[in-house]
Specification:
The complex is a heterodimer of chains A (107) and B (283). Chain A has 107 residues and is of the alpha+beta class. In chain A, strand 5 and strand 6 form a beta hairpin. The longest helix of chain A is centred in the N-terminal third of the chain and has 17 residues. Chain A is globular. About 8% of the residues of chain A have low confidence. Chain B has 9 helices and no strands. The chains are: A alpha+beta (107), B mainly alpha (283).
Chain lengths: 107, 283
């Protein structure tokens, strides 16, 4: 019984380390996001690397993700998304919102 | 043109609301115009600097420099707003009484103007840097649409300023004996909203990982990206889907400021119970 409890406790403590976080690479070129549709595991934090291949500054903006991230031209930005409940989370490049559109799908 | 008008309008109004509240809260204090102008001027200069070094700042702290910077200046503004409110809790009554008596400016109340100037500077800096980055991006692209986009930017700035003035006038319509009570409340909520926003930036930078779950979602009722949602976001920190840590720090900020204000107010209106009646107070 005791070793079992110990093992259970250990598994519980170690759980966050095993449950790997989502990692996403996002590229902006010609004011369009690639990929424009991102799938992440729900209820898991996500680390996002945003590479801006355009010459101009862009602001990654999403009211549903609650993220505002300015990335200057030919630069790379890193942001952390909170664990998401299952659902769709649209995002956009605020400075070129007619083309820079995308969506995160947490499932 | 409409796109640039809307973007600039949004940013200007967010800074303008803060300036309006600060102006109303400092009504009757001499030299406030100078201090607020210093705040706006420093904010604009800072916004240009920030825009020029956006890439460098962003690269600090393994790509989370901008998040730390944003959280830092927001928390600085929270501190300044707290100081102002606590100081006003002790002296606001005198100022209001004096204003009623002489109907003009009074010689007290200048102390926290520097704090309010910092708040104005922070608001203009944050919103202004986005405007600068955006307009600079348009300017560097050139092309036929440049003039129209710039015209949109100027119109957006004018419209944002106009709406801010309307709100300031609205605040001034409040009778003077009630004005400071209202502005104290507004400043408390403004500070709480800024604290919650700072938490969001710390989470985005990966520095805070507790209570990150969304507590409720009212985006079906009042989306945050709507005009009213944005106004309320700036004024009272409205969020259509706040997370636990944000709500916690929102509540802690309100509780902290009101407690400090109550402590500061006590010496002016002493309420001693029989057991602690102030025998050792010389008054």
């Amino acid at each position: 019984m005791k070793p079992f409890l110990f093992a259970a406790l250990l598994a519980l403590l170690a759980a966050p380390a095993f449950g790997a976080d989502n990692t996403v690479s996002l590229t902006l070129r010609d004011h369009k996001f690639t990929p424009a549709e991102i799938h992440v595991k729900a209820e898991t934090p996500t680390t996002v690397t945003l590479v801006n291949d355009d010459g101009e500054t862009e602001e990654f903006d999403s009211t549903s993700l609650k993220i505002e991230k300015v990335v200057t031209g030919h630069a790379t930005g890193v942001m952390r998304w909170r664990p998401l409940a299952p659902g769709r989370y649209p995002f956009m490049g605020e400075f070129h919102s007619d083309t820079a559109q995308g969506v995160v799908i947490a499932e | 043109m409409l796109a640039s008008l809307l973007i600039v309008f949004r940013e200007v109004i967010e800074a303008g609301l803060v300036v309006g509240i600060v102006l109303a809260a400092s009504k009757g204090v001499p030299h406030r115009g100078r201090w607020v102008s210093i705040g706006i001027g420093a904010g604009v200069a800072g916004a240009c600097l920030l825009a020029a070094f956006a890439g460098e700042i962003s690269n600090l702290f393994s790509g989370s420099g901008a998040e730390l910077f944003n959280a830092g200046i927001l928390l600085l503004a929270v501190g300044m707003l707290t100081w102002h409110n606590v100081w006003m809790a002790g002296h606001g009554r005198e100022i209001a009484a004096e204003m009623r008596r002489v109907g003009a400016a009074v010689a007290t109340g200048e102390r926290t103007l520097s704090a309010l100037a910092v708040v104005v500077g922070v608001a203009v800096l944050r919103e202004g840097s986005e405007v600068v980055l955006f307009l600079y991006g348009i300017a560097s692209q050139g092309g036929a649409s440049l003039a129209a986009m710039m015209a949109g930017g100027v119109l957006g700035m004018a419209a944002g300023a106009a709406l801010s003035i309307v709100m300031y006038m609205g605040l001034l319509a409040i009778p003077v004996q009630r004005l400071f009570a209202v502005t104290s409340g507004l400043i408390t909520l403004l500070a709480a909203g800024m604290a919650a926003q700072a938490i969001l930036f710390l989470q985005q930078g990966g520095y805070l990982e507790f209570f990150t779950a969304t507590v409720w979602d009212t985006s079906w009722l009042l989306p945050q990206e709507s005009i009213l949602g944005r106004l309320l976001h700036t004024l009272v920190g409205y969020s259509d889907a706040p997370n636990g840590a944000q709500l916690l720090f929102y509540a802690v900020t309100i509780a902290g400021i009101t407690t400090l204000m109550r402590l500061e107010r006590r010496p002016i209106t002493p309420k001693f119970s029989a057991s602690t009646s102030g025998t050792n107070r010389s008054g």
